[in-house]
Amino acid sequence: MAGVQLSPADREPAVAGPPERLTGEKTGQDSDKQGVAGMHTPLPERTILNEGCEDEVECYGLKRDTPRTILCYILGVLTAGVFLAAMYWKPNWAAKFMYRQSRLDRADTVLLKDMYKQWFLVKVRISKDKLPKEKRKKKGYQKQGDDFNGNTANETPGMRYIRFQKLKYIWDAEGFNFYKLRGLETGVSCNEIYETFKGFTADEQKSRRDIYGGNEIDIALRPLIVLFFQEALNPFYVFQIYSVCLWIFGYNYVYFSLAIVLMSLISITLTVYSTRKQSVTLRRMVKSTGTTTVWRGDRHFEEIGIKDLVPGDLIELPTRGCMMNCDAVLISGNCIVNESMLTGESVPITKTPLPCPPVGENEQPPMYSPDNQKRHTLFCGTEILQGRSADKQPILAVVVRTGFTTAKGSLVRSILFPKPIDFKLHRDAIRFICILASIAFVGATYVIAIKVSHHAKTHDIILKALDVFTIAVPPALPAALTIGMVYAQRRLKNLKIFCISPQRINLAGMLDVICFDKTGTLTEDHLELLAVSPVKKDSFVMVSDPSKIPFSPFVAAMATCHSLTLIDGELRGDPLDLQMFQSIKWNLNEPKDGERGSFDFFMPTIVSSSEGETKEEVGILKQFPFSSGLQRMSVIAKTASADNYSIFVKGAPETVALMCEPSSVPGDFEEVLKDYTQQGLRVLAIASRELDEKQNYYSAQKLQRHEVESDLQMLGLIIMQNTLKPQTAPVIAKLKKADLRVVMVTGDNKLTAIHMAKKCGMIGPTEAVIEVEATPPVGEQQPTVKWTPVEAHSHHANNSTKKNCRRENGQIPDEVQLTFSGAETAIDINSYHFAMDGKTFAIMVEHFPELMPKIAARGTVFARMSPDQKAQLIEAIQDLDLHVGMCGDGANDCGALKTAHTGISLSEAEASVASPFTSQLQNIECVPLLVKEGRAALVTSFGVFKYMAIYSMIQFTSVIILNSVDGFPSDAMFMYWDIAITTSVALLVARNEAYHAIVKRKPQANLTDPSILFSVFGHILLQILVQVVAYVMLTAQPWFTPLVPKEDSIVNYFNFEATTMFLISSFQYIVVSFLFSKGPPYRKPIYTNILFTIDLIVLLLFTTFLLMVYVPEIYGFFNLKKVPLDFRCMILGLAVAYFLAAFLLENYIAESGWVKRLITCRRCRNITLHKHDQVEQELLADPSWPPLSSRLPARTNGKCMDEASVSPKFAGKTADEGNVETPV
């Protein structure tokens, strides 16, 4: 197995199984498992958990080898625990040395490797519990203990399972794999939900609880001592322990060692405190207590604790509302739910009972899925604001998931086990540490050779060689790299931007592309109703005030087709529905049980007119909630004066038109719709149909969605205006000025999105928009792609709108006249943007993957995108080696927010589990703030890294020079270098605030960049040169007397050589700390960091005082030897010269373009071209692509050659093309 290569002798003898199991051939009942494309070939000692899913895990069977384990512990004792620590860091090493490979059905331990290449050792457990009957009867779950053939194997009876990342995996002998233990979310039909789960007895519930565990999301608090030792076992702290032991027992450097130990203890304590505080906060946030009512069958109720719930329990929900503590599917009554905890959107959502249509003899019953039936599922962590029963029946729901398997549990698991951030800075830092270790090895070899030639003692040689590694490799480097992020996180919190993943702050400074949701992010949350257009005489009639329209099916549709509800006497619901309902000035009432009003039967909701000679009342009997996949909602309602029921449908115009009888749709429908959407208006269509008179109250309640949403009559359009937030356009302009690409990803209409993109500045006035439309394969017809330029909508369209949208008197009221901005500015075809909808995107991903890089490189508007497609788009852009940010309101953006390198959720909460960053600023002003702080943190991290690298090399050079003459720095010298200078610099350098502007040039994000490498190695060579010059200057002095080593001392620090190296290197530390604390254009100038500036001034003055003024007490403390004044002036002059040379190197030479050309050859530069640059080169090299279906006006001196040369208006999109039901 990968990473655990065992010899044949290490493995258990394989027990022969059926050939098809070992070869992967399909036979009989295995065909459904083995025949799936991409499935692995099963092996007795290896399998894959969650195969084909995003959390796929490799699994290897192991058995503990006692002799090997004993040998490993002996070796651990002999190596002072280092060998055992290595086993702790690398579980795959522990698997190799302490275990032998075994068949999975006999393994007592499994080695797991997740998709991020992380290794875990997990114990296999055995339980006498049995799976629930609905699981045992499903294929793939046979009697536990069966071998490949289904025969009982000689193994311990019972259910074998493992626990991994809070989830339970059950061993399935037939499938020869561990399968995730699930509740009722898979493998259960909608009919079974109603027929099978009618309440458990207490014994049945207990047996299920033994399998599923308690219904709690428990965040275990590890003891402080455990946290402390786990942090102390970090490889770098272990290295510090090794260094301290060497300094104390080898050199008797007690003060310096104690100072290092104290700093390490403080660092570990702060880390443990932070970890504990986060755990306590998360535990407090997710912990829930209380009771609930469960059915025991035969209408017997019992109050139990919520921790005792199990999948399959039938629970009763209170009408007053409650907090959901499990995932449950509603089977009776309605619930008004606030799902802001999960989605970030606080709009109340109506949940309705799970539909259960009758099933024919040869028909398969529909399967229940929480993802597909979200409108019928109550998710854990959401708040039920109000419950409404029907016909005095209780509000009932069946529990489908509990504990960590719930929606809330999954979000908590994503926090507990986050995706490792592949931050290149840290990977490069580790590589550079390896380079420093190689340099240390060379230095240690040199020291050994020198000591041997000087006939030093063996003890002295070993100590000095080992000490070189403690100097050349800075153990505090990784901790120093995080300092910038810590300060940035604090500054972001002051800006009301909260971060739950500090490592992503640096990634925010590397962003190349930022994607934005539209509604609620770029535009205001609420929509303003601009006008309505009822259909009359085969045309649309514009009406500015809907309340003036006489009662008609159109008004009834506006009054009923919504999800509004009364909560504490206040009308609550979707802002769009609120605007629509309030515009007709009707009233809404929710009768109590038994109240019928003007109706013969109970109506859950009754709406009534407030004005007019006759009061109209309409009762809403049943609601089919809005579905983002279907792009519509509908209701079954009845007017008090009517004899039959009606169906009213509201949704995307393209979708609704498809369900209408063609004769009821005006002939200019597509043209009118296009005119509206090109202005950025939100358009909804409403339609209706009267049901047969034979449909009575009870039969109407049983009607399913597909039975009524057909053969409709088009009633008209609702035109709404969504205005940009005032901060949107300035922020977009600021980002584009900084050369950050901006993209719109929305669920709205494509033409509306294009208009908004132009209005906010995403698309410039001279930039072309190319609409991409793809058609899927049909029969023998191949899939096709059409590339059509979107015309600038000129004033002549106004006439069409006025002609088609009229009032009965032929006039359009001034307040609702729709005007179009002209297109006097010529279009530049060389600067174009792609725009497409979700249907086209899905076809492109499936049938045209070779075009996706170009789409990802030039796409700006992506409309009608589902939540999954938003995440797919971000991944496609990331495939171009670009860093992508996503900003959304959290409603349908959770997947995209998590997928992006930097996800920002606009939420009023302090922290959202939906994204790494949460902004209380309800607009996109948070984006440039985060980018600036990210760049400042990134530059700080690079500066600290360079400082730590040069600091170690300065000290390494000093020690090598002194070892050459058998000298060594004193305890106090090390304390001044490492504590007074380096520690204070590392702690204060990151206090520089971010610069006020965002510049085009992005900060360096790669340690292997030529300018970075040239700077680091240039400074290394320069500091070596300066120290060598200082030593040569010293030896040339007439008063100089070489060091004569003391035979009884391992260190000799009171000499001219140690004094000279200490003084010149102290100046070097201060100089590089100043040079690497960069200011503009990413951070404010260094003088704004007052504490750091004071620290540098104090260090510089004290070092200069130490050099120029002889104070016996101070010299005695540092073990310095007095030198003549003229030599001190020479040292000071050399320090000034070093500063000038280092300043020139860092600010002029290393940053110049010729350095990159000098270091990298042309061939290397072409090879290392980023993917997005390669795609851009391909696009620029082929001006004939994309193959446009019509021409844009050519440019001549900035003007259009001929207005007549513009291609005629292309045919409007068919209603079918607007349907977003195509699965991805």
Automatic annotation (TrEMBL):
Compositionally biased intervals (Basic and acidic residues): 22-33
MF terms (GO), sorted A to Z: ATP binding; ATP hydrolysis activity; ATPase-coupled monoatomic cation transmembrane transporter activity; metal ion binding; P-type transmembrane transporter activity; polyamine transmembrane transporter activity
Keyword line: ATP-binding, Magnesium, Membrane, Metal-binding, Nucleotide-binding, Phosphoprotein, Translocase, Transmembrane, Transmembrane helix
Pfam families: Cation_ATPase, E1-E2_ATPase, P5-ATPase
Region (Disordered): 1-37, 133-152
Segments crossing the lipid bilayer: 70-89, 255-275, 429-448, 468-488, 944-962, 974-990, 1011-1034, 1054-1076, 1088-1110, 1130-1149
All copies of domain P5B-type ATPase N-terminal, residue ranges: 54-172
Gene3D superfamilies xref list: Calcium-transporting ATPase, cytoplasmic domain N (3.40.1110.10), Calcium-transporting ATPase, cytoplasmic transduction domain A (2.70.150.10), Calcium-transporting ATPase, transmembrane domain (1.20.1110.10), HAD superfamily/HAD-like (3.40.50.1000)
EC number: 7.2.2.-
Catalytic activity: ATP + H2O = ADP + phosphate + H(+)
Membrane topology: Multi-pass membrane protein
PANTHER family listed in its UniProt record: CATION-TRANSPORTING ATPASE (PTHR45630:SF8), CATION-TRANSPORTING ATPASE-RELATED (PTHR45630)
Protein family per UniProt: Belongs to the cation transport ATPase (P-type) (TC 3.A.3) family. Type V subfamily.
The protein, known as: Cation-transporting ATPase
Organism: Patiria miniata (Bat star)
